[in-house]
Amino acid sequence: MSQRTLARRSGVSYVTINRLIKGYGSRIGRETVEKLAGGLGCTQEERDSLLRAAGRAPGEIETKFAESPTTARLLRQIARLDSEEALALLTELEQRDREKAKK
C-alpha cells in the first residue's frame, strides 16, 4: 500500500506517514496509531502490537487505569508478572469467560 493510500484510508496526513517511515517522527500518539491501524485494516492483535511498538497502551487500558485506585493497583500487579505468570493468569481469565458464555 502506498503512503498516499494509507493517508487517505487512515486520515493521517501523508507528511506524518512519510516522516514516520523515514524515522523522523517524534513520539507517536495513541490516536495516530489507532488511525493508522484502521487504515491498514489491522486485527485487534496487530493493533495492540503497533501500539506496543509506539510505546502506547490501548485506550481501554488507559481508561481502566484511570477508573479507580483498585484497577490501577491490579494493572500494576499484572505488570510485575513474568511471562509464564502472565500466561497462566490470562489462561485462567479466558477460561472464566468461556464458562460465563456457556451459561
Topology at a glance:
Layout: H1 3-10, H2 14-21, H3 30-40, H4 44-53, H5 59-67, H6 69-79, H7 83-102
Helix pairs in contact: 1-3, 3-4, 5-6
- Helix percentage range: over 70%
Query: What form results from the Cα inertia axes?
Result: elongated
Q: Predict the CATH topology of the largest domain.
A: 434 Repressor (Amino-terminal Domain)
Number of domains: 2
Gap between N and C termini, in Å? 44 Å
CATH architecture label name of the largest domain: Orthogonal Bundle
Q: Number of helical runs?
A: 7
Structural class: mainly alpha
Question: Are there runs of 5+ residues with pLDDT below 50, and where?
Answer: none
Structural overview:
- This protein folds into 2 domains: 1-56, 434 Repressor (Amino-terminal Domain) (Orthogonal Bundle); 68-103.
- 75% of the residues lie in helices and 0% in strands.
- It contains 7 helices and no strands.
- The termini are far apart.
At a glance:
The protein is mostly helical. The protein is 75% helix and 0% strand. The protein has 7 helices and no strands.
Index terms:
434 Repressor (Amino-terminal Domain); 75% helix; 103 residues; 2 domains; mainly alpha; 7 helices
